[in-house]
Amino acid sequence: MSPTSKLAFPALRPGRAATPIAFIRAIVLAYRRYGVAPAGALARAGIDAALLEQPDARVTAAQMEIISGHAMQELDDEALGWFSRRLPWGSYGMLCRASLGAPNLGVALKRWCRHHRLLTDDIGLALDVAKTAATLTVAPRRPLGEMQEFCLVTLLRYVLGYACWAIDSRIPLTESRFPFPAPPHADAYSLMFPGPVRFDAEFAGLSFDARYLELPIRRDEAALQTMLQRALPLTVLQYRRDRLLVEGVRRFLRDPASGPATAETVAEHLHVSVRTLHRQLHEEGSSLQRLKDDARRDRAIELLNRSSRSIKQISALVGFGNEKSFSRAFRTWTGVPPQTFREKGLGDKRA
What we know:
Distance between the termini: 48 Å
Mean pLDDT: 87
């Protein structure tokens, strides 16, 4: 949130009540720590105070957004009482702005972690990369007490939401970890952190494919200003687009063990529906057929360059019923017949 803007609260509409009342109780605790009555915030969000005494109660995402934003402004603390000192309204907006000019997500997240230390030393954020996995961790440096769960969950959702927004892509999580026992509302974690969730872990953190760190930042200052008017939904929104989906399809098609590359088998391998597969490929300016053609072209070129197999054998290996149809397709891909391509060593020139 920017230092100068005020949060634009959404209109209250009927919706699924999935947010645990425990998070509302944590906000009420922040009010009490500052000696401010929470009645106005609860009323604005349409939350009956009696719900606070019901362990299994839930509120909607819109109610959570309203009470969180109201509390941050009224208490002038975006950390909502987690830390030993306030984080004034606009603190996390400055982190967003400081990270926005990074060339890619990896640099942006490292800047976020580094600059967060300027706000508070009560916790430390770190980004670690090991082989193909990236892990964002949050390590408390002092006891957080009753605020532990709400603090760690919200901080991780802040960073994940910003990261997805910055690269305009969903970032699938390979694992989420939390250093406390599974709470009674553990089912809500699958909504906040889709993927495997582990409790009683040594630290709080999120792990994901490290290749997302290489994706460029796709937002500018104008987009940031718009986002900051309603930044809180980023903590609960799940992006539909996955900018690594195309690469995932390519890896599947390159693997000889993958079997027939039908839309159904590819979608199942990538854990998406067939409809989602086609839609996301279209959004990325591609299609499954185009990627299959690219994979067959690349395989054919590899066989022409690195084997002595006949054109007829190669046509069968890359999935063509006869040599004639293969030659016609190869000419479309490269501009020359496969035999000419091999004889003139055009594959070597391309390399």
